Amino acid sequence: MFDEMPVAAVSLNALSCRVGLSESVMSLYFESREAALGLITEAAARHRAETAETCAEWANPSAPAPVRARHIAARQAATFAAHPMLCELLNVQHAILEHDISVDVAISYRRSSRDGIR
């Protein structure tokens, strides 16, 4: 779905049609489009983290710091290039967190984002 349209254009109705549920049923699970996009972003980030090697595996620890930094940056760029949907979701993350979500959803989203980078 995100290959077909920009994330900003995705509505809760479009999401519900894609998964085969009515919009009213989707509303039982997600308080808003932004809450659904937040959960999708979390899942995409978790998948990327599970399929990527750790930063420690990306560079020779005995190499000089500038060389390690270039290797890590190149690997980060490559893993993000392999996950374009995640990049777009992260790009609109500020809008997700600023509109139509409750404090509880925002806190949950922030905590899971924090836990994902540990």
Q: Uncertain spans, ≥5 residues at pLDDT below 50?
A: none
Secondary-structure element series:
HHHHHHHH
Tally of helical segments: 8
Main β-sheet description: none
Number of strands: 0
Strand content: under 5%
Number of domains: 1
N- to C-terminal distance? 30 Å
- Helix amount, in percent? over 70%
On the 0 to 100 scale, the average pLDDT is 78
What structural category do the secondary elements indicate? mainly alpha
Rg (CA only): 17 Å
What gross morphology would you assign? Answer: elongated
Mind explaining what this structure looks like?
By secondary structure, this protein is mainly α. The protein has one domain. 70% of the residues lie in helices and 0% in strands. It is built from eight helices and no strands. Helix 1 packs across helix 2 (23-29), helix 3 crosses helix 6 (84-91) and helix 3 runs parallel beside helix 8 (103-116). It is elongated, with a radius of gyration of 17 Å. The two termini are 30 Å apart. 10% of the residues are buried. The model has no long low-confidence stretch (mean pLDDT 78).
